[in-house]
Task: structure prediction
Amino acid sequence: MLKTFKLGGVHPPENKLSADKKIENLPLPKTVFIPVAQHIGAPATPIVKRGDEVKTGQIIAKSSSFVSTNIHSSVSGKVKKVDVSADSSGYSKQGIFIDVAGDEWLEEIDRTEELVKEFNLDGSEIVKKIQDAGIVGLGGATFPTHVKLVPPKGMKAEVLLLNGVECEPYLTSDHRLMLEKADEILVGVQILMKAMNVEKAVIGIENNKPDAIQLLTEKAKNYNGVSVVALKVQYPQGGEKQLINAVTGKEVPSGALPIAVGAVVSNVGTAFAVYEAIQKNKPLFERVVTVTGKGVSKPSNFKVRVGTATSELVEAAGGLPENTGKVISGGPMMGRAIASLDVPVTKGTSGILLMQKEESERGEVLNCIRCGRCVSVCPMGLEPYLLMTLGEKHIFDRAEDERVMDCIECGSCSYTCPSHRPLLDYIRYGKGKVGQIIRSRKK
Amino acid sequence: MNNLLTVAPSPHVHSNDSTQKIMYRVVYAMVPLLAWSVFVFGLDALRVTLIAVVASLAFEYLIQKYLLKVKPTVTDGSALITGILLSFNVPSNLPWWIIVIGALAAIGIAKLSFGGLGSNVFNPALVGRVFLLISFPVQMTSWPVNAQSGIDAVTAATPLGIMKEGGSMSEILNSLPSISDMLIGNTGGSLGEISAVLIILGGLYMLWKKVITWHIPVAVLGTVAAIAAIMWLINPEVYVNPIYHLLTGGLMLGAVFMATDMVTSPMTPKGQIIFGVGIGLITISIRMFGAYPEGISFAILIMNAFTPLINNYVKPKRFGGK
Result:
């Protein structure tokens, strides 16, 4: 029996169309728009101005607090302006526009492909370097990695979990990275283990990627304390709490951080970025992005510079199919539908999914028939039908008691509802309101 | 500004299951029972089912369109299920106008006056059935013996009636049909309740298609069997073997097809077990000590009333304890 998390879950069609497509370098765009808020926490502060010449890898916006990160230029060229434009949220956000000229990298960055295994920094030096390199969680949550590596006082990490689950349908960027950069990821894991001072790391991979499981299991033998565990395919296994539960059997208590059960979770893509930052002096300014969809002529995995417009990726994958209904930044379960192809790729963009009209349209909303499926698929053991009603009717105190804040917004409830009820929409609304109430209480 | 794309919050995909598909799966599970009832009771059984189905659909359509002035939902399959289940709970020689009254009580009173599919507290078909049982007790309790016995339209007592009327245990056991007859459905009774084997088959189909879970049927049948077994062990001269309890009357049909109605049963497995045990206790109490020979309909309706309360107090196991 393969391991998995114990409560709820769904299994949407996997549709990993680009699983056997090698990672290709996307040609450099002519301009980039690099938002200064690409992470959870305070936006970075721009330190360049119009007309400045920048090199690839140069800091262009500085971290403004502990929970924040540096932003680096992903290209070389001239700063066109510091202005606002829409990011994947649809809102206008501050960012830096750069006209690309050539591709001149900072000299300290090692651009060779050669694997560098040895490192002799101590823990705090590693954390410092990760912080400087602007590394955030690349699974999509974009939480600054250096913050995770420093546990709150009195807490101690025991195990590092690597998220190679990629439970979202369609997405294959982590899968490709594991196949093509296995050693680099494993060195990154060793660096993270050193930074956290833990002896043990486990890489969790879903069983629909047997090639990655086999390769990493084989290679992990050469790295101390690292093991690989195959997991049953079940969404949302890539959720932090679900992955911890699947691998260790422990449950992160309601409202607590993973460190409460001694675990820290990092994405395999993040481990690769850590490798590049420490061993190659390369800050985070490019990432692997899957471009896919049923109507896409060339589903692909691209290495993309941050700030590249979505339209460039779509073109490189064969253009926008005629009956495209929605364009999703991320996967179909938790990704964001973007309003325009001008939206830039950021550190958190794991995929661009072009959905066909009939696939993306919502069905007619009917009465709840109380089938209880939303309850049985909820990985947090909540009652989505009830939370929806409480949100709809503005009964926020009860929603808080029913643990609306535990919702991880995985969307399993809405996915499974036979009456097409917008469960998660109202739960999100309730979460927002309850969050406000909780914050105002603390003041 | 170029054309903006469609946006909506996640998730962007759906399982493609629908309320209608679920309803039709229930209908498929009932088809063998209908076929068997026609085989046993003749075309009269088909007559009863057709009248009940047509009347249910018609009342749903007419009341929604002309009285409530909302978009009719007759195609969702739920009124079809109510019609079939109503017919399954009545004898095959019931006059047509009584069936129509039953359908009106089921659809008009039990379903639409509460707000339609999903909002009804009580199982519509059972409300229709109990309405008829109280209003027309004679017609509702004279069952024809099966058509194969050669003489049509002769009525006879059902096994539960025999058990209720009493007499010494050997007399009762002599007049009861054999266990294999009750399993296959070679006895008197309402249309859909006679064949335990086909009911279980329908239940397995619904389990496989994930329309129901095992909790309610197992809890109902297990409770009835357990209590009946205890009483039988205490005094086998007065109380019959639990197998007879399981195979007679509407218990099996009720446990598999009526108590499992999604709308009127609890949401969580734990709640469903409480619900099922409650139904089992009430059923066996009515059978052993009540005025009616059968109690499953009342038991389900009574527990239907407790469903909101059960949903309120029995919570699923939360992730992260507490």
Q: What stands out?
A: The CA atoms of residues 54 and 76 of chain A lie 5 Å apart. Chain A has three domains: 23-109+283-359, 123-280, 373-442. The domain at 123-280 of chain A is CATH 3.40.50.11540 (Rossmann fold).
